[in-house]
Write a structure and sequence with these properties.
The protein has six helices and eleven strands. With 213 residues, it is α+β, with helices and mostly antiparallel strands. GO terms for molecular function: catalytic activity; molybdenum ion binding; pyridoxal phosphate binding.
Length: 213
């Protein structure tokens, strides 16, 4: 674990109609309590698209920050992708939907991919970022908190359980956002492990693929 990050509320022009955003997250000095509603001390401004129980935390990789730093010619540091948890030696986009992690005192469950938005592009000040980020397809993972607990910088991520379906977060994103209908039957295996709202969206993509086959 490279860092645990909390929001600094921004009111820049790119925050859009809400006028406020918590996407700018900065490393905390010590342990942070994670509960079913998120990280204590964090701020969610757009509650329509963020902050539900299945988005209680968001994890992203140091390696992906390094990739985008090289791509964009600017230094991105932990928290810059809007993530609460910046992980080292982990590939969050390859995590399986429904797998469970122990970090510090907390137990977290992978719920699905992050979808990039205009606020994200505005924060990075990169026109066209949404399309580029989508095309790259390495979104990081949203997490639900199964057991509340404190997480500290440097804590190890321990894999507790993995589902048998083998469906990665990146594969769900590829089907729903990138039009990879060839993945529909495979991704259908993770439907029981998705939050109800996302299950309906992914299920509709699977059904459409089957109908056109």
């Amino acid at each position: 674990m490279a860092s645990v990050n909390l929001a600094v509320v921004r009111t820049d022009d790119w925050t859009g109609r809400h006028g406020r955003s918590g996407i700018d997250k900065r490393p905390a000095d010590g342990p942070v309590l994670f509960t079913e509603t998120g990280a204590q001390g964090d701020v969610v401004c757009d509650t329509r698209h963020h902050g539900t129980w299945y988005q209680a935390a968001y994890a992203f990789d140091v390696d992906e920050l390094a990739f985008w730093s090289a791509e964009l010619g600017k230094e991105l540091v932990p928290g810059n992708a809007g993530e609460n948890l910046t992980l080292t030696g982990a590939d969050t986009s390859s995590a399986l939907v429904g797998e469970r992690w122990a970090i510090g005192d907390a137990v977290l469950r992978v719920t699905g991919p992050r979808t990039p938005c205009r606020v994200f592009a505005g924060f990075w000040d990169v026109p066209g970022l949404v399309k580029r980020f989508t095309r790259h397809g390495r979104t990081g993972a949203y997490l639900a908190v199964e057991r509340p607990g404190e997480i500290s910088p440097g804590d190890r991520v321990r894999l507790l359980t993995q589902p048998d379906h083998g469906v990665a977060v990146a594969e769900v994103f590829a089907l729903t956002t990138c039009g990879r209908t060839d993945l529909a039957e495979h991704v259908a295996g993770c439907l029981p492990d998705l939050p109800e709202e996302w299950r309906a969206t992914v299920g509709a993509k699977v059904a459409a693929s089957r109908a056109s086959a």
